[in-house]
Description:
The structure holds two protein chains of two kinds.
Chain A: H1 7-35, H2 39-44, H3 57-65, H4 68-99, H5 105-114, H6 120-133, H7 140-144, H8 151-162, H9 166-174, H10 179-190, H11 192-208, H12 211-216, H13 225-234, H14 241-261, H15 263-272
Helix pairs in contact in A: 1-14, 3-14, 4-8, 4-10, 4-11, 5-8, 11-15, 13-14
Chain B: H1 8-34, E1 37-38, E2 46-47, H2 51-58, H3 61-91, H4 96-110, H5 113-124, H6 130-137, H7 152-177, H8 181-189, H9 194-222, H10 226-231, H11 243-252, H12 257-291
Antiparallel strand pairs in B: 1-2
Helix pairs in contact in B: 1-12, 2-12, 3-7, 3-9, 4-7, 7-9, 8-9, 9-12, 11-12
Amino acid sequence: MQERWSVGKLAASWFVLLAVALLWLGPYAWMVLTSLRTLPEIVAAPAWPLPKSIQFEAYREVLHAIPVGRYFLNTVAMALGIAVLQILLALPAGYALAKLHFTGKKVAFALVLACLLIPAQVTFVPVFTMLGSVGLVNTMGALVLPFGVSALGTFLVRQALLSVPDEMIEAARLDGASELRIIYGLLAPMLRPTLASLFLFSFVFHYNDYFWPLVMTTDDEVRTLPLAVALLREQGTGVRWHIVMAGNVILSLPVLALFAAVQRQILRAVTARA
Amino acid sequence: MKPRRPLHPFLFLAPTALVLGLFFFWPLAIVLKNSFYRWDLLTPPEYVGLSNYALLLSSGELVGTVVRTLSYSVVVVAVSLALGLGLAVALDRPGRLYAFVRGAVFSAYVVSWVAVALLWMWILDADGGLLSTLLRKLGLPVVSWLGDPRVALFALAGVSIWKITGYSMVIFLAGLQDIPRSLHEAAALDGAGPLQRFRHVTWPMLRPSAAFVGTTSLILSFQAFDVVRVMTQGGPVKSTTVFVYAIYEHVFVNLRVGRASALTVVFFVFLLLLTALQLWAWRLGTARTGRA
């Protein structure tokens, strides 16, 4: 049944479209435009008109002020380490919880679910003092290990494994495959969509994370990019919004590019939770 | 299935148990213990009983923190939910243009809080910010968004709404996909207009999505920190000091681990209450649709 669109309805729809685009793309546009200005331009006319020419001065200032390359590598290494560790550990745990009989299974599963209720904001003080007492504060370990297990990830892997028929695992056992081979060689490839969305969600979340690295590091060696960009505003004096916005572009561009490339998977990862 | 060796399940769960024990359950117990001590991280802790809790109550800090955190969260959730629903219904059309605009709205959810907070600090900047310049051009008074204690918390809420509306929009869009076209067609045949169809067909079918988005974003907003730390550092005059920022400040600025821990315990109890609310809302949401 096709509805006829009146001119008024069409205009209203276009108006909504335009307003929404302006409201959400406008700020990005302004971020990029600001980053392409020079200091005198910002001081003279901060908001308008468009910059006369494209200037990369602000980006040079950012690269001069902070070791962007190292921070970027730190951030990616941390996010990658967390995402990979979560998947590696969720697979055997999910396998045991979904497929194997043992005493205490219900309790174990309930304890994993209980961790969904405990965010890092609740545990960070004791974890900070604990890691401090073993000399791990200011190391990659302090950034990665506390997130090595995702309770949600373990749960999702367990749910996905429930629908794998037992016969398949029995057959692999008869073929002489070891349990680890069954988990990582047979089951993991079958769970590819679940694992991919788990990986993406975890990677993006931790790439963006500000709270944990802020609390656990004071040292440049292990600082991450979000921290460094936030510091760009706090350091130095005078008007430096063009520099801060340049840092912002550097920080956001990789995530936006990743989002553009795998938008469908990210959307699936988000809606799968619902 | 029978495990090959009786020990196997425990071996497979051991790494997970180790991490969860070390970084979830053990710290939870320590937080509770620390809340009964006075400790500045430098000298040995001293047992003080319930006095941390008593101080939080008598100083009014606890009530203030709860009120600020709840006001922020309720505003963020209510507005982002309504906006997300409206956008989902308006943008649920085929075509590349609509897909692009949906992507643009959702992209804010993917970008880091730090980037969003810094961007909006500049937009809201009283001297050269985009918004102030626009207001001035229109001859309207310029508000000191982040400098006025009556406004700052809601300015932060506005920024958070901009960031997470894409999330609720996406969940509602997924909910809309599940509504059979035949329902709309039947309602249209019965002479129902667009508004009536929304009220009697769309909304009842979206209620589970609304319960899901509403409660999850409530719990997440309750844990807000980044936007506060970057934009206002809890100020002006404490007006944006929400729970997690207050805890952070007690530990890293005032070196009051005991007070911070007591505040954390209360914060955790609130999170448990919100989770109970969440489970209740989900049950209600699905039960209602079951009947519809």
